[in-house]
Each structure stands twice: as structure tokens, then as C-alpha cells.
Amino acid sequence: MYDHILYPTDGSEAAEVVEKHVKSLADAYDARIHILYVVDSDHNKSSMTLQRDQHGNWTTGMFRRDSDGNRGGMSKDKIDVLELLEREGTELIQEIAGELSQQEGYKTATACKRGRPHKVITSYAADNDIDLIVMGTHGRSGLSRQLIGSVTEKVIRTADTPVLTARQ
């Protein structure tokens, strides 16, 4: 029934709760777990650039001062915020996949993609013959007063694939 289960994660503690449900379902159906991390390209900070300050810490140009004390001094080590998030996301899902496959014996696949999270999740599900999407009701952007996270809600409304939500 469920050969391929999609586990979109943002690395939050809430997502770790969902992982327990994903593992239980994968055990029951001998399913492959697809671990997906989405870098939100629509995020308001996507146009920012990070750079290293004199101490080697990452900062934005608007907070850094050049040698004359003027704001916005740039260094040669500047990187794009989305690139940094993509690298961190890739490391996260590789770590999760390593734990699941090598230590616990699950079949896994990983992907790190850029875009609007709900669109990437539903597209990935359609393109990879996903049988079930398992998500939490809150992620990093979820407010405690919300009943369900906005990304999860959009996935539920737009996905052709069944969606199971796990409350944290």
C-alpha cells in the first residue's frame, strides 16, 4: 500500500516527532523513506548576502562596518543565503538518511530543493510516485496558536497524494 513515504523536514524538534511516525509506517509497509528539505526561495531574506566579519563570523552587509566605520563593508568571503541554507539542508538530510539507513536499516532517498515549500513537496510527491506524505502540524514558522502549519495546510489542500499529519 505504501511503498514510498515522503518525509519533508525542516530540522525542527517538531519534525523529529514526525520521524517516529514515518519509521513506524516504513516498518509496517517495508517502504522507502524519501527525506526532503526545501529551501524557501520566496523567503524575505533570500536576497540578502552573508559575509564574514573580522572574527570569521557570518553577518549581513547591513550590520558590518568597513575599516572607516561605514556600514556595508563587503568581504571577499560573501555567500548567498540560499546557498548556505541549501548546504545546511543537504547536510541535515544526509545525516538523517545515514542514521535511518546505516544504523536502522531503512531504505532512503534524499533531496534538497529550492522553491515554495508546498509546491516543491507536492511536485516531488507526484514526480517520485510517493504513496503517502507525512508532515507535522507545525514547523519552524508555525505559531503555537495556529491549529496547523501553513505549509502543511497548503500541502493538504493541493496534493494529489494522501497526507498524514502528526501533532507535536
Automatic annotation (TrEMBL):
What residue stretches are annotated with the UspA domain?
A: 1-50, 88-166
Q: Which InterPro entries does the record match to this protein?
A: Rossmann-like_a/b/a_fold, Universal_stress_UspA, UspA
The UniProt entry, under PANTHER family, shows: STRESS RESPONSE PROTEIN NHAX (PTHR46268), UNIVERSAL STRESS PROTEIN UP12 (PTHR46268:SF6)
Family membership noted in the UniProt record: Belongs to the universal stress protein A family.
Question: What is the official name of this protein in its record?
Answer: Universal stress protein
